[in-house]
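sry for the spam today, last one i promise. struct tokens for design, 80 residues
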């Protein structure tokens, strides 16, 4: 299970680079934070049950934040 968190860290690192190249600096910094979080968890070597609890909490926080952003902050059709 720890290798899967390292893999998620690798992929979020790739996304961070791609967002930065695409001039989306804020999202890139968010992905860098996710990369650090996942890689740190990958090296903790905790039990598989705890990994699943942490990932479930991570998904809950993400979905609540994304729903709040898409409902109250995002302006549809607005671009730069």
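last one done:
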């Amino acid at each position: 299970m720890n290798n899967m968190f390292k893999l998620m860290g690798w992929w979020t690192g790739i996304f961070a680079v791609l967002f930065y190249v695409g001039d989306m600096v804020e999202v890139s910094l968010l992905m860098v934070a996710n990369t650090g979080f996942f890689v740190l968890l990958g090296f903790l070597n905790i039990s598989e049950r705890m990994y699943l609890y942490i990932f479930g909490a991570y998904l809950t926080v993400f979905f609540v934040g994304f729903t709040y952003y898409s409902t109250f902050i995002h302006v549809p059709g607005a671009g730069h």
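The chain has three helices and no strands. ok im logging off now
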